[in-house]
Amino acid sequence: MKQLPYLKNEDGLTTLYVDGAPYIALSGEIHNSSSSSLEYMKTKVWPNLRGLHLNTVIVPVFWELMEPVQGQYDFALVDGIIEQAREEGVRLILLWFGLWKNGRSTYAPSWIKKDYQSYFRARYPGGAASDTISPLCDAAVEADATAFHSLMKHLKDIDGEEQTVIMMQIENEIGFLGAERDYSDKANKQFEEVIPSGLAALYSNNGNWKEVFGEAAAENFMAYHYACAIEKIAKSGSKAYPLPMFVNAWLEQYPWKAGTYPSGGPIAKVMKIWKHAAPTICLYAPDIYLPNFAEVCEEYTADGNPLFIPEARRDMVSATNVFYAIGKHNALCFAPFGIEDFLATATNEDGPDFGIMMALNIDMSAFILNGTGPYLAESYRLLGNMMGIINRYRGTGKMTGFLQHHNSGCLLTFSKYDVKLTYKRQEDGKPVSGGLIIEVNEDEFLFAGIGFSVEFLPKSGETDKIGYIQIEEGEFMNDQWIRGRVLNGDEAAYMISIGRKPAALKVEMYKYN
Ligand SMILES: CCCCCCCCN[C@H]1[C@H](O)[C@@H](O)[C@@H](O)[C@H]1CO
After folding, report:
1. What is the DSSP letter of 367?
2. Residue of the nearest CA to atom 8 in ligand 1?
3. What does each C-alpha distance from 256 to 205, 259, 300 come to in angstroms?
4. What is the C-alpha to C-alpha distance for residues 386 and 479, in angstroms, rounded to an integer?
5. Of 171, 173, 360, which is best to mutate to test ligand 1, by the most ligand atoms within 8 angstroms of its C-beta?
6. Does any ligand 1 atom lie closer than 6 A to the CB of residue 35?
7. Among 1, 61, 173, 272, which residue has the fewest nearby CB atoms (within 10 Å)?
8. Where is the Glycoside hydrolase 35 catalytic domain (predicted)?
9. Apex 109 CA angle, 107 and 114, nearest 5
């Protein structure tokens, strides 16, 4: 069998290999319900994706539709989606909507939902039942693992050679909403017991959850049990077909209380427990809807976790954030959510109205499409044509990224020059400023991004004068620089800059005295 897609960590840099070559997913995630109808995909989704220069699409598959009757599997949707993706020439990352979706068990088959004796619910303080099946319910986890195993076996049979599907996300935004932990009888009993020996060793401390973790006990308890459940499901699927498997996280946010965001989900502060209990999971992926993009990227790459963003904001910032995620943090994937809307001419009447966000008084700006499509398409076209160069400079220290976030610019240091970047003043409906820079050699630089100007400065204390040999606008075609105008005149003599549209510049400098 052909080498499967895999992740490799080389001196701290994690690379995704597809067909044996480095791969960065310029992607988008479709709405939750779009892939539940092949006709809808054919008429309302794929046509709207063609102009976006995606190389990968993130698509849900549904337990309830795949195993409507226990033990009877229907793979028609999965097969159809893969067929369509092959026609479109894109790769797929599949989301397994099994036991848990946004903290709830809305995608479990009816035979699971209705039998809440066997598949018991997580409960709220006082004992009221929730619509979340408890992660401590071994029977439910077993049933999910069996179904996921069947899906992975089927994928191996129908896609093992072509490998249209390159990765799997297990469940979606796991965790318990509405309370900081499950108050089912089994959970209450276990919460009073000493923590598992493995955790005691990991934290070189022992006692029950409260004694060891204090205030964080409830959330860590849920993190441990969700991670154990996910490990069972991932392992069973991996036995059949070991594609790279990851989990995504609904991020901690105001009012910062576990249960107002899914408690126990794979957020940065419990990643240590998740990594301990779920070794089959290859990475932890933040769904970044909050405005502090750079901060979240920093947080999620802190201890060697590769940056992988399966869900990003829908507003204009995404057209710039992709350059920063790839340039600064060597991201493996960037995927705005509800991607089929981005170039859709007619506003998608039958798309979700995100009412739930209002209900959760969540800032809606992350979900407002404000003309993002054409800018994101241009960002992806530009980046897509320079993937070879980006993969060559990833992790070398010669490539970095920069992003406007309530600041007017930044100063970057390279081997022979310092580079002062000044951001264009923020304008509504226009992309924020940001991009990536590659020090091709000590005198030659590539810039790609939106809305900034560049000034080369001597290293501190140096007296040499600095001049430019050539400033070229242009773009890449299959990693070959296609020069446009040479901007040695007014266009750049006073300020080398990139405008409000995604663009690239190649600049050669020199020193004299
Ligand atoms: C500004 C703060 C936004 C907080 C985000 C909350 C949850 C976000 N959930 C996401 C799920 O992963 C997707 O399936 C979908 O439901 C998506 C929201 O539409």
Report:
1. G
2. 250
3. 26, 9, 17
4. 5
5. 173
6. no
7. 1
8. 16-223
9. 110
Domains, the chain? 6-384 (3.20.20.80), 399-512 (2.60.220.20)
Check if 250 has its Cβ closer than 6 Å to any atom of ligand 1: yes
Cis peptide bond prior to 47, omega within 30° of 0: no
| Distance in Å, CA 250 to ligand 1 centroid | 7
Cα 107 from Cα 28, distance rounded (Å)? 22
Return d(Cα 369, Cα 376) in angstroms, integer: 11
Instruction: Band the pLDDT of 356: cuts 50, 70, 90.
Output: low
- What is the structure's pLDDT at 362? 61
The DSSP call for residue 181 is: S
Residue 162 Cβ < 6 Å to ligand 1: no
CA 98 from centroid of its chain's CA atoms: 19
| Cα gap 228→213, rounded to integer Å | 18
Q: Does the CA dihedral 302-306-309-315 come out positive or negative?
A: positive
CA of 31 to the centre of ligand 1 (A): 11
Q: Tell me what pLDDT residue 201 has.
A: 98
Q: Which amino acid is it at 122?
A: A
Indicate if ligand 1 lies below 6 Å from the C-beta of 173.
Answer: yes
Q: Give the count of beta carbons closer than 10 Å to the beta carbon of residue 354.
A: 16
**Site to substitute for ligand 1 among 100, 169, 177, 287, most atoms within 8 A of C-beta:** 287
Residue located nearest, by CA, to atom 14 of ligand 1: 32
Residue appearing with tokens 């991996």: 238
3 state SS of 418: strand
User: Amino acid identity of 280?
Assistant: T
CB of 252 within 6 A of ligand 1: the answer is no
Residue 210 host element (H or E): helix 209-213
- Nearest residue (by CA) to ligand 1, atom 3, is 289
The pLDDT tens digits for 366-387 are 888 889 999 999 999 999 999 9
Closest CA to 418 of 512, 321, 509: 509
- Which residue has a Cα nearest atom 17 of ligand 1? 337
Mean pLDDT score, 421-448: 94
Burial class (CB in 10 A: 0-12, 13-18, 19+), 484: middle
pLDDT at 70 over 80: yes
Q: Where are the alpha helices (DSSP H) in 43-103?
A: 46-49, 63-66, 76-88
